[in-house]
Amino acid sequence: MESPREIVRKAVETKDRLYIARALSLIEEGMYGEISDMIFSSPRAHIVGITGSPGVGKSTLINALISELRKRGKSVAVLAIDPSSPISGGALLGNRVRVRNLDEATFYRSISTPPERSLSLKAYLMIELLNTIGFDYILIETPGAGQVNVGISRVADTVVVVVQPLTGDDIQMLKAGIMEIGDIYVVNKSDLPQAELTAMHLRTIVGDTNRDGWHIPVIKTNAISGKGVAELVNAIEQHMLFLKNRNLYTARFRRRRMAIVEEYVSNAIYKTIHRYFSSARIRVEDTDLGNPLHTAMRVLHEVLATMCRASEGGSTAH
Ligand SMILES: Nc1nc2c(ncn2[C@@H]2O[C@H](COP(=O)(O)OP(=O)(O)OP(=O)(O)O)[C@@H](O)[C@H]2O)c(=O)[nH]1
Ligand SMILES: [Mg+2]
Questions:
Q1: Which of the listed residues 97, 224, 231 should we mutate to test ligand 1's pocket, taking the one with most ligand atoms within 8 A of CB?
Q2: Is 236's C-beta closer than 6 angstroms to any atom of ligand 1?
Q3: 121 and which of 57, 72, 222, 263 could share a cystine (Cβ 3.0–4.6 Å)?
Q4: Which intervals hold domain AAA+ ATPase (predicted)?
């Protein structure tokens, strides 16, 4: 049996997909304490978030992006975030396209997150490990609803928001939800009617948006035929150049690492509190519930004091 450290060492040294998968599984199983000094290295990958509503063609587009990036000699890892909904059980969408592994220089992994959570700490750590392994591009597919979206803009260097051809009303709705986060907008399914109209509307909307002086492109693609995909890769590359020229690349790196610090700390606090409430240690009398806010403050102080004692004792909470 290889030790966790052995597995990660082999993943980094050989870049063998089996070892990469096993190394990521260690993180997924929460065993990152043992390998934490092997996960991080200076940034070299271009981390690209591909986000958008279900069914707009993100996975199909990622397949097309892999082909184009491989043509350009780049290695590519894909991390697909799959919010497992307890209601639909993930079976809601019948026509899901799978991302393919094309050759040895590509890697694909999907991870499930609880639907109410943003990108998890585990996802952040997997991204870091894929960077250390040395992929040129790390593409992250995330569904475009709610919190996950916000998560992606904390970890990605470049956020690509994918939409499909829409009617005017839908475009107004879009404006509210996802217009804040994209560095690049893609109107996929350009073979369908309304694609040009949608692109025009989007251009009008993003024309007013200023992202540190970056001119936000709106690109039409047909992910099935590959039309427009080279142009998208060009835009992704230009965005990286822009980040580097403006010293924003290191700012994004810092934001990503800070997200890990914050996630770790909040996870640990959440777990401690959860443990506290589910144990018999918390004593709340009926009389305390006359003012539950006072009681909450008292409990909070107790929990924080417990955490302080635990961390002074050197214990870690994952
Ligand atoms: N006509 C047309 N259909 C497309 C295009 N791109 C993707 N599709 C189809 O759209 C459907 C959904 O594609 P996916 O790639 O699974 O979409 P997704 O955004 O990854 O979906 P989820 O992962 O479920 O959120 C599939 O039937 C694809 O074949 C396109 O450019 N044109
Ligand atoms: Mg998909």
A1: 97
A2: no
A3: 263
A4: 44-246
224 shares its domain with 95 = yes
- CA triplet 40, 45, 47: central angle to 5 degrees? 100
Determine the pLDDT at residue 101: 67
Structure tokens at 231: 């142009």
pLDDT of the residue at 88: 47
Mark whether 89 and 109 lie in a shared domain.
Answer: yes
List, in sequence order, the alpha helices (H) in 104-181.
Answer: 121-133, 147-155, 168-177
* CA distances (Å), origin 152, targets 50, 106, 143: 9, 21, 10
- Provide the sign of the torsion angle of the four alpha carbons 304, 308, 309, 310, taken in this order: positive
pLDDT at 84 over 70: no
Termini Cα distance of the chain: 24
**Residue 289 belongs to what domain range?**
256-312
- CATH number of the domain enclosing 98: 3.40.50.300
Burial of 116 (0-12, 13-18, 19+ CB in 10 A): exposed
Ligand 1: does its nearest atom lie under 6 Å from the Cβ of 93? yes
Average predicted confidence (pLDDT) for the chain: 86
Can you give the pLDDT at residue 118?
A: 57
- Asked if 11 and 122 sit in the same domain, the reply is no
Q: What does the pLDDT read at residue 174?
A: 67
What is the number of other CB atoms lying within 10 angstroms of the CB of residue 38?
Answer: 18
Beta strand pairing call for 46-52 and 184-187: unpaired
Q: What is the pTM of this model?
A: 0.89
Shared-domain flag, residues 116 and 236: yes
- Which residue owns the Cα nearest ligand 1 atom 9? 57
Q: Indicate whether 60 belongs to any domain.
A: yes
Residues 206 and 280 in one domain: no
Q: How far is CA 221 from the centre of its chain?
A: 22
